[in-house]
Q: What sequence folds into this?
């Protein structure tokens, strides 16, 4: 399980991305929980509060789907590149653009897939 925080840069962007993710069939099927952070629930971190979406992904596959969908949302809008911060169950933290984090996670999966 991984906790994901996606900072979009504005409350309107967070609302738009949340709607996009909730309508994405692959994200919906994955069981990933998604919600925009509110000022009351957002942690005091380097990322903004109301411009941040929080999600919980139960598997690497659902996490990859979330990142692909986030990247797809941004491209046609020319929106600011969202910052993604993932805290994995073992405490490992990955942070960067959706594309950067996606590349890291896919590279990790390659050795697993070649062992099969």
A:
């Amino acid at each position: 399980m991984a906790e994901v925080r996606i900072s979009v840069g504005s409350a309107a962007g967070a609302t738009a991305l949340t709607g996009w993710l909730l309508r994405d069939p692959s994200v919906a099927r994955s069981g990933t929980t998604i919600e925009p952070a509110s000022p009351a629930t957002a942690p005091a971190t380097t990322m903004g509060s109301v411009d941040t979406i929080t999600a919980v992904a139960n598997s690497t596959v659902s996490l990859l789907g979330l990142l692909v969908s986030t990247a797809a949302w941004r491209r046609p809008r020319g929106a600011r590149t969202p910052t993604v911060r993932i805290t994995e169950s073992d405490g490992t933290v990955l942070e960067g653009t959706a594309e950067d984090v996606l590349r890291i996670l896919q590279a990790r999966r390659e050795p697993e897939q070649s062992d099969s």
Observations:
- The chain has four helices and five strands.
